[in-house]
Amino acid sequence: MFLRSRLIQLRKFALPLCVLVFGFAGMASAQSVWQKMKQNVLQQQCQQGLQKACQALAQINQKQSQQPPQTPVQQAGQPGQQSPDRGKQLQAGGAPDEAGPIHPPQGTKVEESVMAPLADGARFFVSPHGVHVATFENSGSRAVMYYDGVPGPKFDEILGGDSNMPTMVGAVFSPDGNRFAYCGRSGNQMVLMVDGKELMRSSESQEGQFNGESCRLGFTSSSQHVFLIQRVVTSTMKGGIFTRFFFDGKLAALPSAIGIQSDGNVGGIHLSLSPDGNHYAYVAIDPSDEQKWALVIDGKVAPYRGGNPQWTADSQHLYTTLVTSIPGKGQVAEAMLDGKPIMRADQIRLHVAPQGNMVVAEVNAASNTPQPLKFLVMNGKKVPGSEIVNQRGVNLDQVTISPDGKHFAARFTNAQGHQYVSFDGKAGQEYQSVDHIEFTSDSSKVTYTAFSNGKPYAIIGEQESNACLATLVGPVINPQGGLMISPAGGHAGTICGLTGGAPNVYIDGKTLPLAGGAQGAGDLRFSSDGRHYAYTANFSGNANRLVVDGAVEMQSNLAVGNNIGNQYVFSPDSQHIAVYSSSPTSTGEYASGVFLDGKYVPGVATPMFYRLEFTADSRHIAWAQPVPGQHAFRLFVDGKAVTETATAIDPNSRESWWDMAPDGSLSVLGQDEKNLKRITITPSAQTSLATLGGGGAMVAKRDQRQP
Questions:
Q1: Which domain does 604 fall in, by range?
Q2: pTM for the model
Q3: Does the bond joining 475 to the residue before it have cis omega, within 30 degrees of 0?
Q4: 3-state secondary structure of 65
Q5: Contacts of 617 (CB under 8 A, 6+ apart)
Q6: Residues 27, 35: Cα–Cα separation, whole Å
Q7: What is the pLDDT of residues 344-390, one digit of tens each?
Q8: How many domains does the chain contain in total?
Q9: Which of 520, 451, 534, 521 is nearest to 491 (CA)?
């Protein structure tokens, strides 16, 4: 079937430090999850004979003893009552008895919706959110597309699909997952179906034939508009082969000649969609004379010509460039804003900010003179110090604009062939090469990788790492990726390896050894608020542990048979962390469960896990694991089995068979003997992270104060 922080400096307490680097800014509330995890690590180190850890632990205990006593933590559910299953669930070394029949906790809602009847040869297409399903099946000799269990009209065949994959056949979904579109052929006409209704028909074909190139579909970023790119082959029009563009079923003014796009796809519509998804522009080339062309904006021929259209961040204006003849100067390039020239030079390449009104231009000036010159222009003004003689390898490129649209960076190559990064016009350190330029989320720092004198480096702001071959992630400007950037704040980092020395971590401008003498590490990530970081590390004896804020979590054991990369998860509110784990201590029998907020919680032993995720409100955690001997999986919420279903899509795939909704519910795709099903689980108020993990003070307080 075809489916689709920043590390802050530690305060200079008069305390002995006992961990490498633990954490970012401390939480205001006493005994947060992160503080409890730190205390657990100190206890482990003290038991191992580390005197500094014992001293630090004693001071923490003394400080806590001076605080007023806390009200005993209550479990989620009725005040003053303990979950009747908790004692059995959290027995030392034991596991909850969930292998038998499923009895979801009281208050759990499990709702099933039929998506489509199962049939041989059926193909499923799943939305990116909400687990909406379009199913392509045959009804007798006709083709039918079901959407969430409702059949559409019968067609002779289903055509096309994704504009990025025109050879595939199927439905496309809007970014929010709530809308869908596909094309069907009925006789000698192609019908565009959107949200189950006919939007338009076309009899234009490729000499009587329809295929995937006849229907290339997409939705705009707002999910409000659908567009169609249609390839036509005809002998009645001079030029013979061209493409048409439709927006919400309305034909744009001009067709365009077929050409080879920069990505190698055969097209003809080089489309620029506005950030708000409500406007579009493209260059239409006359199929009979490729020297003739025009700019089309929102379906109409613009009163001016311009190529390489780019919308401003507010979607209200359009930048274009145009090569034109100027008397006495010959061919020159013009940069225009809404058709009005703002700059002229031999060559111009524009970079438009994602926010605000900044535009940075790479300008080639006097390229035919003995001293050809290239420089940067920001908002119409030449950037001082950016001028280079553009010859013999001297160059500037990789222009990058910060997320807030207030800063820019670029890579410069000098006459010696060495490179450096310029940040807002200020040149940085020179290296043999630099690459992977990217800003931190708060736009305060630029990060990149470098190589010099036989050694690699990583740079964050003005801080250079020790020798560091960075573990790269993406996507960024360079398709090979860059450093790991925190979702918030000015934090960035990477795991360093293959430098001739011991592997280490480079984070927020500091080079740190791997925690606990680990031999290797990977999967460095930050919490959504940027105040915590974690990575996985391997030790001698093939032990694998989770490292949180620089401390090894000894209660974690990542030696689970198939954990999809052993990927851990932070909660959306950045207050919790979890990962699949085997038992931290050997019992002679295979055991597995979940490491949650510093504690190992045993579960139903399994060598394989599929998904692990906190609910949107961060009060619950869910996962899936296979049913032994069956092509099925069982869903757990807060450690309790809530439902079981036959597998519809390979759970190891990246297809959207699982979706956590903003309201805290979880939807998954499954099936029974007759139907494809969407199963939606709303967790019970009687279970929570507290009932699963033993109830950290921070968790319990939040559960008590929130409805």
A1: 521-702
A2: 0.82
A3: yes
A4: helix
A5: 572, 664, 706
A6: 8
A7: 999 999 999 999 999 999 999 876 566 778 999 999 999 999 999 87
A8: 2
A9: 534
